[in-house]
Amino acid sequence: MRKKIVFSFSHCVCGFSLGCALLPVVAAVASGAFPDPAVMDAGLLAAGAVLLLLPVMDEYAAPALYYAAASLAVSAVGVLAALPVRLWLPAVLLLHGCCLFRRARAHYEQLQPLFRSMAVWYSVENHARYSYSLVLYLLSALLPGTAGPRWLAWAEIPPAAVLYVLLLTRVHTGRTCFLRPSREREIKDLIRGNLRTVPAQAGEKTEEMARMSRLYARVVTVMEQKRPFLDENFGLDDLAAAVFTNRGYLSRTINILSGRNFSQFVNYFRVRYGAELIRKDPTLRLISVAQMCGFHSSPSFNAAFKVNMGETPSAFQEHIRAQGLAK
Questions:
Q1: Pair 41, 94: CB distance under 8 Å
Q2: Longest CA span, the chain
Q3: Where are the beta strands (DSSP E) in 203-309?
Q4: What is the rounded CA–CA span in Å between residue 257 and residue 269?
């Protein structure tokens, strides 16, 4: 049985977020006053901004922790020093915007990760993140100042709370809460290759399908026994030569019988091999594992591993280490 990891970047950022949300209430109670609704709104919006800092896909987690800590510090100074909401909340949103800008710039500087099967899901995650950020900014812009009507501040608490709960759900379930759950599952299944496609003319197993099945069996045997995928330059032409067929027919066979394109198919075997290496030696550096599996870079290894194994390589390695300590 896997040992559950108690501490993580995600838990830490969620803690900072909760601190932003509760700080105005705690400060008001400690001073014996009733919480100002505008300050409560600002706390919820700051908490939502912190949750939106969490990385998606293979983005580095450390920046989220730094920006979240800075956001909590700004919120704490603003609330405890009784500064106007219009002064300290924009500072939190500025930190949030800087983090998003840094992530976007870092991602688009690496062209290769953009052209992979996970690009579709990354796009969904990113659109959800920026849509929620837009709502966050709009609610912040509508927040009344000290001279504004008090009823407007009270009216903003429900949508701010709903946004915060939605973002918490997003963090804890792994869903974007942007699309229907069934649609999200369908997209993930398509990426993983779990949805098998069948030729339109093949109601029953035709001679063509039988021929493809024999070829596919040879392909899997070559991949499992000879492991040509360990060469990072391994391509469709190399595999076609190994099984004595042409690349077009081979590509079609892999697409139909595995539900994956060639790149996804190869990455599946590479990830399986990487998981095997980690099980044998949990102390291996992940960058070394990526190179030994035939991946060009660590980000592509991380993304492929998460797709095929359901967790990141570092989380998988941590679980293997925990199992070893438990024995």
A1: no
A2: 82
A3: none
A4: 15
